Amino acid sequence: MTAPDGTSPAAPHRSDQVRAHLVDLVHERAVGDLLPSDRELSARFGIGRTSVRHVVDMLVAEGLLVRAQGRGTFVAPPRADFQMRITTFGEEVRRRGMTPGSRVLVAVTVPAPDAVADTLALDAGDLVYRVQRLRTADGEPWAVEDAWIPVALAPHLLHGGVPESLDGALRAYGHPPTDGAETISAADATAEEAALLEMTGPRAVLRVDRRTFAHDVPLIHSLTSFRGDRYSVFVPLDEARSTGPVGA
């Protein structure tokens, strides 16, 4: 029996074969390489084009493939699936098998702006370091990071230049990060961000507003804008557990 889209009872197994074939091609080929069309995959695996399209759509959603209207399906640039935990940009990029890098844009000592003083539990006029960097992975721009750190926690932090890892430098001062909180929102890149991130197409970014603590001591307030096509968030979910009577 054949379904309206041309699939057969064996289609679920063939869908798995199509998926495995495309994943293999992603690993074998370079970013931007053209992949077989839906029609070619349908003929090769004996599966309806609707089922092929579903497999491709799933791989697009996972960030492995990218579709271009009227042009075809291509190998997508790698994306970072940053997990919700206290890690640095460098650690997450290395976890992906890539090489992190950065270019310092701003490194100054200034009185804390009101909003920064509030998030870092400082008094008006207290000094903070402001460190803005362009963060890269394998030389490609991924994010613009703006970080604020109380000078009192690390009096000589910027002596000799900006350390590779701000978290690591704070550890050396006896303030290891232990926990934090993030707010993630979607936004359009500013003109400056779009230029730094070399965004020539869609200008969507994910903005991550993070506060990092050493127990109850605020360490860093950072605002990072990630290219939307190179960033995703991994959030593990547990089964919901009732904390009271059903319907309460």
TrEMBL record:
<dbReference type="InterPro" id="IPR000524">
    <property type="entry name" value="Tscrpt_reg_HTH_GntR"/>
</dbReference>
<dbReference type="InterPro" id="IPR050679">
    <property type="entry name" value="Bact_HTH_transcr_reg"/>
</dbReference>
<dbReference type="InterPro" id="IPR036388">
    <property type="entry name" value="WH-like_DNA-bd_sf"/>
</dbReference>
<dbReference type="GO" id="GO:0003677">
    <property type="term" value="F:DNA binding"/>
</dbReference>
<feature type="domain" description="HTH gntR-type">
    <location>
        <begin position="8"/>
        <end position="78"/>
    </location>
</feature>
<dbReference type="Pfam" id="PF00392">
    <property type="entry name" value="GntR"/>
</dbReference>
<dbReference type="InterPro" id="IPR036390">
    <property type="entry name" value="WH_DNA-bd_sf"/>
</dbReference>
<keyword id="KW-0805">Transcription regulation</keyword>
<dbReference type="GO" id="GO:0045892">
    <property type="term" value="P:negative regulation of DNA-templated transcription"/>
</dbReference>
<dbReference type="GO" id="GO:0003700">
    <property type="term" value="F:DNA-binding transcription factor activity"/>
</dbReference>
<dbReference type="InterPro" id="IPR011663">
    <property type="entry name" value="UTRA"/>
</dbReference>
<protein>
    <submittedName>
        <fullName>GntR family transcriptional regulator</fullName>
    </submittedName>
</protein>
<dbReference type="Pfam" id="PF07702">
    <property type="entry name" value="UTRA"/>
</dbReference>
<dbReference type="InterPro" id="IPR028978">
    <property type="entry name" value="Chorismate_lyase_/UTRA_dom_sf"/>
</dbReference>
<keyword id="KW-0238">DNA-binding</keyword>
<keyword id="KW-0804">Transcription</keyword>
